[in-house]
Each structure stands twice: as C-alpha cells, then as structure tokens.
C-alpha cells in the first residue's frame, strides 16, 4: 500500500471503533472507498483474489471493479446508511449482501459484502468500509476449475508448439499451431487422422510409421511420458523433422496422450551447417603452417592439423575426439591443462601459475621458459589460444596455435652474447662512443667522459650534440643546426663521416673526426657516434705544412740559383769555345805560317830537326782545341763532347759510366745522339774510327 493511502486510511480510522472490525476480518477482502466511492485501500487478499496491483486499483471508482448491478447496489447502500446520523457503526445496519466482482483476467467472482460508513468527529460520512468473502468453497472450486481450464485453453492455443490430444485410435483435438505446422485447412479434417497419417510410410531407420507410432503411444501411456525424434509430413507432402514429447493424463475417466510436436527443421539445418562449418574449419586448420589444434566446450579435440602431427608425432586420427587433457601428453608426458583450458575454464588461480601469460586482443600468449621434449628433440614453444564463436556469437570451443621458436631462442642467446661482447668493446674502446637521437645523447662509454671531461654519464647524456660544441663551427653554421643536419644525413644514408670542433666541460675546444652510423634499437632508429680527438694529427699536419712551405721556398731559391749557374756555365763553355777557336785561329794564322817559312829558310838538318820538334810540340798543345772545335762543329753538347773524346780514346760504356758518374743507359742515350748528329744512325760505321778520322 502506498504511503499516501496508508496515511489517509489511518486518518479515517482515528477514534473509530471500525479498527476492531478490520482486525477481526483481516483474512477477508478489505476495501475502503472515499465519499466519491474511489478506492483508497485494498488488502492483500483483495489483490490476491482480483489480480489487480495497487497501481491499478488505487483512486479508481468502485464501478471499475464490480458488475453494474453490484456497483449500483453498493452506491445505494452507501446512500442509505450514510443518512443515519448516529455516531460510529451500527451492527444492525451492517447486513451482508451478495455482489459480483470482476478480476483482472475478466473473470467474475461472487462475494458476501458488508458495507459500513466511516464518519469523522462531526459525524459526517467520509468513507465506506467493505469486508467481503467468497460465498462458498464449492463455488470457489468451480471458479478455480473454470479459471484453470481457461488458463490451460489459453496456453493450449497460444503455444508455439503443435499440441494434439490423441490415443491409439486417432487424434481428437489440436491447437491452432498444429494446423499451421502441418498446413492443414481445418481442425475437423485434422482430427479424423491417426498420427501415422501425418508421417511417411517409413521412418529413417526403415520401421513402419504406423507400428512405430502405436509403440510410442503405448510407451507414453505406460511410463507417463516419452520423448523421441520423428519424421512428419505436412498436408502439402513436405517432410520435416520434429521432436515429439508425449505425456499421459486422464480425460473423462480414461487415459489419453498429449503430444507436443516441435518442428526442428531449422535446428537440423543449423546442425548440418554447423557440421559443414566444422568440416570447413577442420580443413582450414589442417592447411595452417603452424601446429594447431582445437577443442569443444567439453574439452574434446575437434581439430589436429598436419603441422601438429609433424611436431608431436601423434596423428590426428588418434587424437580427434579425445578429451580429459590427453592433448597435453605429447608436450608434458602427462595429462594436464594447457593454455587453451585457461580460456574455457576461466580459472584465475590456474592463470596465475602461468606467470608469463599475457592477454592481447582477446587472446592468450605464452612462451615456455624451459625446452620441452616434443617429438624427436627439445624445443622452445610459443603458444596463442583464442576462443571460437559460432554464427550466433556463442562460444563453441577454443583453438591453440603453437610455434617452434627454438632457433629464435638460440638466436636470442647469440644476440645476447653479442650484446655482451659489444658492451665490452663499447666500454673498452679507445675512441669516444655515444648513442643519440635528434633530441640528445642517451648512452656513452667511459672514453667519452674522459675525452669531454665529465664526471658521470648522467651529467653528459642530458646534452644535445650541438651543446658540447662551440656556438658556431668554422664554416660559420650554428653547431646545433648543423649537428641535426648531420644526424639526418646519417639516418637517411646509413652512415656519415665529417670533422667537427667539440668543446670539453672546461670550455677547451678540440678538433675531432666523427663517424655517425644508423641502427635499430628497441624498434626505433638511433645513431651511434664515434668521436676521435685529432688534435695531435692536426698539429702534425700544420707542422708538416709549414715545413713544406719552407721547403718550397728553398726549392724555388735553389731553382733560381741553378738557372743562374746554368747560364754561367753555358757562358763559360761559350767563352771556352771562343777561346779555343781564337787560340787555334791565332796559331794557324800567326804561328804556323812562320814555321812553314822557317822550314823553307832553314835547310840544315839540325835546324829542320828543331822545327819538327817545335811543330810537334805545337800540335800537341793545340790538339785538344782542335778536337773540341771539330766536335762542336757537329753541334754536340758539352756532355756529348766528353763522351765522344772518351770513346775516341777506346773507353767502354761501363768505363765512361764510372768516370762521368752516369748510368750505362744514359751513356748509351748520349752515344745514340752523337751518331744521329754525325749522320751515322743509318750507317754501319764505327763511332771510334769515325772520331779518330776527324783528328
């Protein structure tokens, strides 16, 4: 009862002797209506008998709940008894009378009703109290039976299943769904048939429908109920599968059978489609490259592909249909839950045991920490387990894929060992090595701290490469901008080498060679920088440059001096040649003529002897001049004249080479030039003989 109605009722009953009456009749139907005959209170029995909820009866007129004659009688009693101005309730005026009330379901119930007015302190009628009970038990029973019969009939007709009443003689009643399922035009036509008439001559296993139908009816009559599958036939001739549930009940003193028939065509088709899908599913799984198996909700294996056979050495024929964790034996040599069972059983405690299992996108992933002896060798395995859903998005099982990652594990071990070696080399390198991206350094070796003068790695790696440099590089470009450009180039090309001016923690600048190399670290591209201090090399190169420049100056001076000396020597040779020619000319013109005259003048033997000695000595004196002048006539160089004189004296090339400090090849070269200038290059004449002939 709503709080408002309860409060109003309490107000009406205050200082009234009706409270005792209500308590005495608490098991009966109790109603209270206001002066306008609107219902403001209904007891629990009122709601139970009528089927109305408080929201349906509260503040509604009594006309709504009673048949017209009964409602009119209640209004008249209210008017008559309300005219009595005596205080309280009068027993003699409270005589019961029969009324008929309408239930929520449309049924009519007969009641004995007592009505009494409720007055306020001034004696004015403010409400009407009604207390009612059913007229007799028999009427109540009959009404109940009628109610049940109506309810049964409603259920009978509104059922989604075909329902028929029958015995071995035939069908004598059915609901509307039966006519719809069997496509029968009328109940009259349907109730003339035997169940076997609604079936093919034989059922699926070859039994005659008439014999099997009678046997099913007998079983239902004997056991009380019986269920089975049946192939039925519609009036159109179409066959359809059905589930039949028979139950026995008494009707007019004899046992009959109620048969509920459910068309399961859709279910059978769905099952067939499911089987087809399951076969397609198995075929798809069979061709997967990774070892894969699947189980249904009961834990029985429904798929075991060829890759799984190859991995475990267990055939799919031996594993399909097996349950009770038998699929774990090839991996663990015993029955135990696998990851696939964590999905189906949803056991949090068991999941905790797999400390390395992780969820991702609705699937479970796991890697074995230790190698398992699977098939013919120990293996490290990676597994993925996922639920399988049917076309209605209902879980129908689970699938687990396994991958042999033994090679990867070994590779990881090798990589780990390599990383250790790299770290050792990294820390022991003589060059500064640092790891960086475009933002800053994030790692460096001890040599880096030593080179830059930082006390700790944390103090160094917070800087950008451009910040451990002067503001500008020698070409005038800002260090930060140029450093970013160098990093971009290394990222693009893979590596990049250049020279750089760096700055130590104390502000000291130093030149360096930098090699940037790109590589992957944790799935992201980073740059390794190798920095080598080239201060000593630069200083050596500067010293060498200065020495070279000084040498070039000295060389230029010597070249000039050599040129001047060559000029002087050439002049000396020219002067010498001129002197020789002058001496020879003077001897020939000034001396020899007089000797010839003396020869003619002195006829004595002694005088002729003196003249011969004089002429001989004079020829000895001028013979070198004569030879050189003769040789110069052929335009021979000074060196060629030297070699020609030595050849004339009978010296070999080897002897000439030693005397003049020349190579034998140079001597041969000069001899060839001498022969060319004397026109002997195409003649077989002996050079020494030819030179001797010139004197």
Draw up the topology in text.
Elements: H1 3-13, H2 18-24, E1 29-34, E2 39-42, H3 44-50, H4 54-57, H5 68-82, E3 97-102, E4 108-119, E5 125-134, H6 137-158, E6 162-167, E7 170-174, H7 176-181, H8 187-190, H9 209-223, E8 225-233, E9 239-251, E10 254-263, H10 265-286, E11 292-296, E12 301-304, H11 306-312, H12 316-319, H13 329-332, H14 339-345, H15 348-353, E13 358-360, E14 363-367, E15 372-374, E16 377-379, E17 381-389, E18 395-404, H16 406-428, E19 432-436, E20 441-444, H17 446-452, H18 457-461, H19 479-493, E21 495-503, E22 509-521, E23 524-533, H20 535-601, H21 605-633, H22 638-648, H23 653-660, H24 664-677, H25 687-693
Antiparallel strand pairs: 1-2, 1-5, 3-4, 4-5, 6-7, 6-10, 8-9, 9-10, 11-12, 11-18, 13-14, 14-17, 15-16, 17-18, 19-20, 19-23, 21-22, 22-23
Helix pairs in contact: 20-21, 22-24, 22-25, 23-24
Task: Give an account of the 3D structure.
The chain is α+β, with helices and mostly antiparallel strands and 695 residues long. The chain folds into five domains: 3-145, PAS domain (Beta-Lactamase), CATH 3.30.450.20; 159-263, Beta-Lactamase, CATH 3.30.450; 269-410, PAS domain (Beta-Lactamase), CATH 3.30.450.20; 429-533, Beta-Lactamase; 589-693, no CATH class. Helix content is 47%, strand content 24%. The chain contains 25 helices and 23 strands. The strands form five sheets. A six-stranded antiparallel beta sheet has the order 12-11-18-17-14-13, sandwiched between helices. A five-stranded antiparallel beta sheet has the order 2-1-5-4-3, sandwiched between helices. It is elongated, with a radius of gyration of 66 Å. The N and C termini lie far apart (166 Å).
């Amino acid at each position: 009862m709503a709080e408002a109605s309860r409060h109003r009722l309490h107000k009406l009953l205050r200082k009234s002797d009706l409270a005792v009456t209500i308590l005495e009749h608490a098991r009966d139907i109790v109603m209270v209506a206001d002066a306008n005959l609107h219902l403001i209170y209904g007891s629990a029995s009122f709601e139970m008998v009528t089927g109305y909820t408080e929201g349906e009866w509260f503040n509604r007129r009594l006309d709504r709940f009673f048949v017209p004659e009964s409602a009119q009688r209640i209004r008249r009693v209210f008017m008559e008894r309300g005219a009595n101005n005596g205080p309280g309730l009068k027993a003699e005026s409270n005589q019961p009378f029969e009324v008929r009330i309408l239930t929520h379901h449309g049924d009519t119930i007969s009641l004995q009703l007592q009505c009494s007015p409720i007055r306020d302190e001034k004696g004015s009628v403010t409400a009407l109290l009604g207390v009612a009970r059913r007229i007799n038990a028999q009427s109540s029973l009959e009404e109940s039976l009628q109610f049940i019969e109506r309810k049964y009939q409603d259920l009978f007709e509104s059922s989604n299943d075909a329902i028929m009443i029958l015995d071995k003689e035939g069908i004598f009643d059915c609901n509307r769904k039966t006519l719809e399922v069997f496509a029968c035009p009328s109940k009259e036509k349907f109730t003339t048939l035997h169940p076997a008439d609604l079936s093919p001559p034989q059922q699926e296993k070859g039994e005659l429908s008439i014999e099997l139908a009678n046997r099913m009816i007998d079983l239902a009559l004997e056991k009380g109920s019986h269920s089975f599958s049946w192939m039925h036939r519609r009036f159109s001739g179409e066959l359809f599968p059905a589930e039949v549930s028979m139950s026995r009940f008494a009707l007019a003193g004899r046992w009959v059978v109620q048969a509920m028939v459910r068309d399961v065509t859709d279910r059978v088709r769905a099952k067939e489609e499911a089987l087809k899908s399951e076969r397609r599913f198995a075929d798809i799984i069979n061709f997967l490259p990774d070892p894969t198996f699947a189980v249904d909700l009961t834990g029985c294996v429904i798929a075991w592909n060829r890759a799984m056979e190859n991995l475990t050495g267990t055939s799919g024929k031996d594993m399909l249909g097996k349950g009770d964790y038998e699929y774990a034996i090839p991996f663990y040599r015993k029955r135990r839950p696998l990851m696939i069972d964590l999905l189906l059983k949803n056991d949090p405690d068991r999941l905790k045991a797999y400390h390395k299992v992780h969820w991702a996108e609705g699937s479970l992933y796991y890697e074995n920490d230790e190698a398992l002896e699977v098939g013919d060798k120990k293996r490290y395995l990676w597994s993925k387990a996922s639920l399988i859903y049917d076309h209605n998005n209902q879980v129908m099982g689970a699938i687990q894929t396994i991958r042999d990652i033994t090679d990867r594990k070994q590779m990881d071990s090798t990589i780990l060992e390599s990383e250790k070696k790299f770290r050792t080399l990294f820390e022991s390198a003589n060059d500064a090595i640092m790891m960086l991206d475009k933002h800053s350094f994030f790692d460096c070796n001890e040599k880096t701290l030593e080179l830059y003068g930082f006390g700790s790695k944390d103090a160094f790696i917070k800087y950008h490469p451009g910040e451990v440099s002067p503001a500008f590089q020698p070409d005038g470009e800002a260090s930060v901008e140029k450093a970013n450009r160098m990093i971009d180039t290394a990222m693009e090309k893979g590596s990049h080498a250049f020279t750089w001016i760096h700055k130590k923690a104390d502000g000291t600048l130093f030149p360096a060679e930098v090699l940037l190399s790109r590589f992957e670290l944790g799935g992201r591209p980073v740059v390794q920088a190798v920095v080598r201090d080239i201060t000593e090399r630069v200083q050596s190169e500067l010293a060498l440059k200065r020495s070279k420049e000084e040498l070039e100056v000295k060389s230029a001076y010597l070249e000039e001096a050599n040129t001047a000396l060559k000029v002087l020597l050439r002049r000396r040779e020219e002067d010498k040649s001129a002197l020789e020619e002058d001496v020879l000319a003077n001897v020939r013109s000034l001396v020899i003529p007089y000797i010839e005259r003396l020869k003619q003048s002195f006829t004595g033997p002694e005088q002729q002897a003196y003249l011969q000695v004089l002429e001989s000595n004079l020829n000895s004196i001028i013979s070198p001049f004569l030879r050189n002048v003769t040789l110069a006539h052929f335009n021979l160089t000074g060196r060629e004249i030297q070699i020609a004189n030595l050849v004339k004296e009978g010296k070999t090339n080897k002897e000439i080479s030693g005397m003049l400090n020349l190579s034998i090849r140079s001597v041969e070269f000069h001899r060839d030039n001498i022969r060319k200038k004397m026109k002997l290059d195409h003649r077989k004449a002996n050079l020494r003989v030819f030179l001797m002939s010139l004197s």
